[in-house]
Structures are given as C-alpha cells and as structure tokens.
Amino acid sequence: MNLTALVQTIRNLDGAWGKRWPGLPLVYGACVHQLNGQASVGTQSARIRSLLGAGEAVAQRIERMGRAAAAQKNEPAYHSRLHTATTLVSLTALLLAQRQVEHRATQGLSPSEARMLLAMVAHDAGHPGRINTVTHELEGASYELVAPLLKKHGVNAEDTRAVKDIILSTDPRVGAQHYQTAHKTTCSTQRLAWQRLFVQEADVLASALPQLQAELTRQLAKEWAKFNKKAAAGLLKPSGRLGFLEGGTRFSTPAARSMGIDKLVAKQIAAIRTSGT
User: Which residues of 225-242 are buried (b: 16+ CB within 10 A; e: fewer)?
Assistant: First the structure.
C-alpha cells in the first residue's frame, strides 16, 4: 500500500463514518487479511491465534462502547472509532512497506505484526476525549480496559507485557525517549523498541499528511474545546501545526522513510517557517 492508496483508504473510512460505518471489527479483520496474504489461517501458531483473537475481541468491545457513546452524543470528535480504524490502516501500510524495505517474502502474519495490531486497536480504548494530567494516564486506563480480553484469549505473559508497553508508549510525552532507545539498535519489527516506534508513527501518520491534516486538526480542536478553548484555538494556528510537526513523531522507521513521510513533514515545516506565521 503506497501513500496514495493509504490516503484514499483513510478518505473512504471518513466517507463511511456515520450511517455507512462498517464497524471496527471489519476494519481490523481487513488489516489482518491484508498482512496475512495467501497464508492459510490453519498454519498460524497458537500464539498468533491468541493475539488475533484478543484483537478481534478488543475491536468488538470498542465498537460497542463507541456506538453507545455516539447514541448519547458523547463519542470524542477525534479519538473515536474512526481514529482507531485510521491508525490500523496506517500501521498496515507501514508494515507492508517495511517488508518491502527488507525484501522479505510474505509468509503470513508474523507474531510481532499481530502484537502491534493488537496494541494499535487497543491504544485508545475508552478514550474520554481529553489530555493526560500525568504521564500514561489515559494510555494506562486503555490498557486496563482491554487487559481482561488478553487474558481471556490466552495471550502469553511476554506479549501481554509488550502490548501494555506499546500502548503506554503512545503518550506523546515519552516519544523522544523511545526514539532514542530504538535508534541505538538496527531496525527490526521483532524488537520491542521498534514496535513502539511503528505504532507511534501509525498513531499520528494521517495527521502528518498535508492531504488530511486540516480536517483531523479541526476534529481534535473540537474535542479539546470542551475542556480548554485556548488550547483548541492554538491547534488551528500555523504555530500549532509547527509544534506538532517539530515536536511529535519523527517518522524515522525505514518504512516511513521509504514512503516519503519524513520528507512531507520536512516540507511542511519549511513552508510554515518561510511564511513567518
């Protein structure tokens, strides 16, 4: 999936949001299918089946919660089921690109890829539509919400700890720390340090793209306006955009660079700085 295809997929999801929404479980299943290729489900290990079973259960839980919140007009404007679906397809695009970078023949979904998909679908579970007051506040709550589902589906202790770690790493406050840790080693999707970075990149990839950023920024501003109107207004200013682009995820995985995302971000930064606004 190249960048053009990713943008179109995200636009299709946005267009379906509302009455034509297919449901988060369907989006999660489509991502699994795309990464699994022609591999037979029967050839998957018990470990992968546990991870995927938990991911499916989490998707179902979030869909139910989101529908209930929407019925009460209380689903967050940005951190909604649509955001989770967008991050799932973004992660799928990154993982497919990473396979190409490594010249790796597709042999079905790997355990590390299944682990990242599970962390991705769970990372904003139950998000209340506000920001952290302390580090890992909302991310920790998301993990606690889905932890029983991991146990129910037999996710092993190592994967459970890793999924929690990856979810906590999506707190923007700790991004720089994880970037430094990962870049002390060679990139590999089998390394937890790099799994964090892939999920972090997928979490904000759509917002980094010039084709999509305006609408996504408006959604986040609408969400923030409920508790901090000044901060919400700041998001819509060029300085707010610059702060996000310079202070956020660096798009340093080989996958992101092969897709040209780092260059798109650099171009936007240069344009804002040149305009002087």
Answer: eeeeeeebeebeeeebbb
Short-list 18, 19, 28, 109, CA closest to 61: 28
Nearest to 204 by CA among 177, 233, 169, 232: 169
Domain residue extents for the chain: 3-203
**Mean pLDDT throughout 40-63?**
90
Residues 164-215: pLDDT tens digits?
999 999 999 888 889 999 999 999 999 999 999 999 999 999 999 999 999 9
Residue whose tokens read 């023949």: 105
Say how far apart CA 253 and CA 187 lie, in whole Å: 7
The CATH fold of domain 3-203:
Catalytic domain of cyclic nucleotide phosphodiesterase 4b2b (1.10.1300)
